[in-house]
Design goal:
Length: 289
C-alpha cells in the first residue's frame, strides 16, 4: 500500500450560485471570517500529511495561484512597518509542493480529476472540494487517512442526510459496517426521490487509487450531462477495497448561500478576538420581540 502524498483540488467551477460576487473572484477565494475556503482545504490536507497540492483550475482562477505565491510587495511593506508576516506563512508554497493544471471545459468533477492524471501518476491521491467546508478535530482528511492506513483501497467521506435530500447527492449502497466505517457495495449519483439505497451521502472528500484515471478516460457523461466521478468510482467496486467513512465533525455546504453564512457565523463565534462582539450582535438581532 503506497503512502498518500498528493491531493487534487478541483477549482475550475464557475461559481454561478454566488454571482455577482464570483464574476471577478473565484468562489474558492470567498472568505470564512478571514481565510478563503481554499486555504482551509489546503490546511486540512497538510494536517493529513499531504506533500503536493494539485489545483485543477479554469479561466479567471489566477487569484488562487497568486494566493499561494509570495506577495513580495505586500510582505516588503509589512516588514517595513514592523508588522509580523506570520499570518501569511500558511499561504506560501514552495515550487515542488504545488502544481497547476487547466481544465479547459467545465465537463464535471470526473473530468476535472482526470485532468490531473499526469501529475498524479501511479500513486493514490486525495480529492478535496473546497466548498464542502469540514470542521473537526482532527480534520476530515486526517480521519480518512487514518482509516486508509488500516484498510487500503478507496475511501470516500460519508454523511447521513435526510431522506428527502438524497436526490441531491451521490448515495452509498452499504455493506458491512464497523463503527464509522461502511463497506461500499454500490454508488448511485443523484437517485430519484424515493429510490436511494441508503441515506449515506457522498461528501466532497475522497481517497482514490490511480486506477480510477483509467476508468475516467472512457467514462461517458452521466447525471447533468457531465462526467461524474461517482460513476467512475462505482466501476471500481469489487476490484479494490472500497469504504465510506462517516465524518466525525460538522460540514457546512459553502456552495450554498445559507450554508456559507452559517459557516461564517459558527467560526466567528469560536474566535476569542471577535466572538464576544458577534455573539452580542446576534443576541440583539435574533432575540428581539
Amino acid at each position: 500500500m503506497k503512502r498518500l502524498r498528493k491531493a487534487v483540488f478541483p477549482v475550475g467551477g464557475l461559481g454561478t450560485r454566488f454571482l455577482p460576487a464570483t464574476k471577478a473572484m473565484p468562489k474558492e477565494m470567498l472568505p470564512v471570517v478571514d481565510r478563503p475556503l481554499i486555504q482551509y482545504a489546503v490546511d486540512e490536507a497538510r494536517e493529513a500529511g499531504i506533500e503536493q497540492m494539485i489545483f485543477v483550475t479554469g479561466r479567471g482562477k489566477s487569484a488562487i495561484e497568486d494566493h499561494f505565491d509570495i506577495a513580495y510587495e505586500l510582505e516588503t511593506t509589512m516588514s517595513g512597518r514592523g508588522k509580523s508576516l506570520a499570518i501569511l506563512e500558511a499561504t506560501r508554497m514552495t515550487p515542488g509542493s504545488v502544481a497547476y493544471v487547466r481544465q479547459q471545459e467545465p465537463m464535471g468533477l470526473g473530468h476535472a480529476v482526470w485532468c490531473a492524471r499526469d501529475i498524479v501518476g501511479d500513486e493514490p491521491f486525495a480529492v478535496l472540494l473546497a466548498d464542502d467546508f469540514m470542521v473537526g478535530r482532527p480534520g476530515c482528511l486526517k480521519q480518512m487517512v487514518d482509516a486508509y492506513e488500516r484498510t487500503g483501497g478507496n475511501i470516500i467521506c460519508a454523511q447521513e442526510v435526510a431522506d428527502d435530500r438524497t436526490h441531491l447527492y451521490g448515495v452509498i449502497t452499504p455493506g458491512a459496517r464497523s463503527g464509522r466505517l461502511t463497506e461500499v457495495r454500490g454508488l448511485v449519483e443523484k437517485p430519484a426521490q424515493g429510490t436511494a439505497p441508503s441515506n449515506l451521502a457522498v461528501i466532497g472528500r475522497y481517497i482514490l487509487q490511480p486506477e480510477v484515471m483509467g476508468v475516467l478516460a472512457s467514462q461517458e457523461k452521466g447525471a447533468g450531462g457531465e462526467i461524474q466521478l461517482t460513476d467512475a468510482m462505482a466501476g471500481m467496486i469489487g476490484n479494490q477495497p472500497f469504504h465510506g467513512l462517516t465524518f466525525d465533525g460538522t460540514r457546512y455546504d459553502c456552495g450554498d448561500k445559507a450554508g456559507y453564512i452559517q459557516a461564517n457565523m459558527a467560526l466567528a463565534l469560536e474566535r476569542d478576538d471577535i466572538g464576544p462582539a458577534v455573539r452580542a450582535f446576534g443576541e440583539g438581532l435574533f432575540c428581539r420581540d
